[in-house]
Amino acid sequence: MLRTSDVKAYCEREPQFDDMICSLRAISKQPKGMLKETREVVALARKFNDRVVRPYTAELDRKMQEDPDYLPRDFVEEANRWGLYTLWIPRIFGGKGYSLPSICHFLEEITSVCAAMANLIGVHYLGVATLIATWNTNIIQRVFNDVVEGEKNGKPCLVSLALTEPGAGTDIEETDLMDRGNITCHARKVDGGYRVNGSKVFISNGHLSTWHMLFSFADLGKPSSNLVMLAIKTETEGFSFGRKEHKMGQKGCPASELRFDDCFIPDSVVCFDPAQASKLARTRTDTTMQLIDYVFSASRAGVGAFGTGVARGAYEAALKFASETEVCGKQLINHEWAQCMLAEMNKNIIGARNTYVESNYANGLDGMYKTLQVKPIYYLVRYAPAVVLKKLVPPFMESRLGTWLMRKIHCDWQTDAEIERTSGLGSLAKITGTDAGVKNAQMALDLMGQAGLRQEWIAEKHLRDAKLMQIYEGTNQLNRLNLFKCLGGRHLPQMSVFTD
Ligand SMILES: Cc1cc2nc3c(=O)[nH]c(=O)nc-3n(C[C@H](O)[C@H](O)[C@H](O)COP(=O)(O)OP(=O)(O)OC[C@H]3O[C@@H](n4cnc5c(N)ncnc54)[C@H](O)[C@@H]3O)c2cc1C
Fold it and tell me: Is residue 323 within 8 Å of 330, Cβ to Cβ?
C-alpha cells in the first residue's frame, strides 16, 4: 500500500494531478446554491432570447450591413431594463449577485442565437473582471455603484476593457513580448495623477461604455514592469472616440478606437500602478503577467462559452434543416451520414462546454472566484440582510485595509502553480470552444448546401461571428502557446515559450 506522503509525491509529479481534476477537487467545496443560480440565469437567458434576441438578430445584422456606424443603443437599453448588466454585480452594491461561473452558461445561451448581442452583454463583464483584478476596492465600489444607478435611472452604464493598440495586440498580452513590442500608450506621472497619451483599437462596446479599464504604461522602454491601470470615464477631458471598425462578423457589437490626448487622470481612479505593484510579493513584471492572467483565466472561459454557444446555434440550425428536408426519398435526419455529422457537431459542443466548466472550477479554486465561493462568505454575501451588509461593506471597501487584504489573498497568496493552472485551462477553454464554433458553423453549411447560405437560416452568420472569436482574447495561436507554457511543457527545464 502507498503511504500518504507517497500519494502526495506521486500526485505532484508532472502532469500534476491537481491540473487534471479541478472539478473533482471543487465539487465538495462549492456552495450548493450555485447550481440553482445557474439554472435561474439559463432560464432567464432563454426567456430573453425568445422575447428580445431571436426576433431581432437578423434585423440587427442587416441594419449593421446597411449602416456600419449604427450603434445598437436600443438593444443595450432593453438589456439594461432586463437587469442584465447587474446580474453579476454583488448584492452589496445593489446588483443581483449571481455566482460568477454562471455567466458562462448564460452567455452560451445568448450566443446560440446571436453572438453580437451576447458580446454586447458579455464584454461589460470583461471590463468588470478587469476592475476586480486590480482589487482596488474603493474604485470597484465606485464603478459598481454607477452601474447599478444606471439600471435604476434607465441610462445603461457599461464597462469596457482597453488593452489592444494599433501596433500591439498579441504583444500586450504577454510580458515576454511586451518589451519587444510596439506599445505606445503612455501614462506620465504628474502631481495628483497621470497624463495619458496614445490610442486603443478594437475595443468592444467602446462607444457604448461609460467606464473604460485602460492598460497604459509609465515607461515605454520597459512596459512589462510599468503597468498603469486606470478607470476612465467617457466624459474625461482629453478622451475621445475615434473610428468604429467595419468587421465581418458580430456586426452588432461595436469595436471602437479610444483616443487619449494629454488626458489627466486623477489618483482617485488610478486602479494600479508601479508604486502599488512594488508593495506586492512578486517582481513588478511578474505581477503584470499575474494580473493579465488573472483576467484572461476568467474571460477566456467566457469566450469558450461564446464558442460553445455558436457551435450550438449552428448545430440547432443544421438539426432543424435536416428534420424538415427530404433527400433521396427520406428525411435528411434519417440518413446515416447526416447523423454522423450531427453527432460530430454534438460532440464538439459537449467537449467545448466541459472545458469551460473545468476552467471555471479552476478559477473557483485558485483564481478570481476564490473568496466568493468559500461557503461562509458565499452565504453571507447572498443571504445577509442588505442593511447589515451596507453597514459592514462600504467602510471595508473604502479603507486601505480592503485593498491590502484582497491583494494579499488574491495576488501574494496565489502560487505560481495556481496561476499556471488557471491560465492554461482558460486558454484550453478558449481554443476548444472557439474552434468548435468555427468547425460546427462550417459543418452546418456543408450539411445544408445552398439553403445554409441564405440569411434567414442564420447559419452563415454563425460562421462570420465564430471566426472573430478565434482572434480576440488572444489569437488561438497565442493561446496554444500559453497552454503549452502553462500546462503541457512547464516541467521541462529547457522549455521556453514566446522567445522567437
Ligand atoms: C471583434 C474583436 C473584438 C475585440 N475586442 C477587444 C476589446 O474589447 N479589448 C481589447 O483590448 N482588445 C480587443 N480586441 C483585440 C484582440 O484582443 C486582438 O485582435 C488580439 O489580441 C490579436 O492581436 P492582433 O489582432 O493585433 O494580432 P497580432 O498580434 O498582430 O498577430 C498577428 C498574427 O501573428 C501571430 N503572432 C503574433 N505574435 C506571436 C508570437 N509571439 N508567437 C506566435 N504567433 C504570434 C498571431 O497569432 C496572429 O496570427 C478585439 C478584437 C476583435 C477582432
Answer: no
* 293-333 confidence digits (pLDDT tens): 999 999 999 999 999 999 999 999 999 999 999 999 999 99
* Domain parsing of the chain, residue ranges: 15-155+278-500, 161-277
Query: What does the pLDDT read at residue 191?
Result: 97
Going from the Cα of 147 to the center of ligand 1, the distance in angstroms, rounded, reads: 28
The radius of gyration of the chain's CA atoms, rounded to the nearest angstrom, is 23
Cα–Cα distance for residue pair 283/71, rounded to 1 Å: 42
- Most ligand 1 atoms within 8 A of CB, residue of 230, 478, 483, 497 to mutate: 478
* Alpha carbon of 471 to ligand 1 centroid (Å): 6
CA neighbor of 491 nearest in space, from 24, 16, 37, 79: 16
Banded pLDDT at 400 (limits 50, 70, 90)? confident
Pocket of ligand 1 (CB under 6 A): 123, 161-164, 169-170, 173, 177, 202-204, 247, 250, 255, 468, 471-475, 477-478, 498, 500
Residue 298 CA to residue 129 CA, distance in Å, equals 8
Three-state SS for 106-167 is: HHHHHHCCCHHHHHHHHHHHHHHHHHHHHCCHHHHHHHHHHHHHHHHCCCCCCEEEECCECC
Determine contact, residues 319/308, Cβ cutoff 8 Å: no
pLDDT above 90 as % of the chain: 84
What fold does the segment set 15-155+278-500 form as a domain?
Butyryl-CoA Dehydrogenase, subunit A; domain 3 (1.20.140)
Tens of pLDDT along 149-207?
Answer: 999 999 999 999 999 999 999 999 999 999 999 999 999 999 999 999 999 999 999 99
Q: Indicate the DSSP class of residue 16.
A: P
One fold for 15-155+278-500 and 161-277: no
Residue 146 CB contacts under 8 Å (≥ 6 apart), including other chains: 157, 210, 211
CA within 13 Å, CB half, 279: 10
Contact 289, 417 (CB under 8 A): no
Question: Strand 211-217 and strand 159-162: pairing?
Answer: parallel
Ligand 1 center–CA 126 separation, angstroms:
16
Give CATH for domain 161-277: 2.40.110.10
Question: Is this structure's pTM higher than 0.85?
Answer: yes
Q: Given a cut of 90, is residue 489 above it in pLDDT?
A: no
Report the chain's mean pLDDT, rounded to a whole number: 95
Mean pLDDT computed over 126-147: 96
* Confidence band for 17, pLDDT divided at 50, 70 and 90: confident
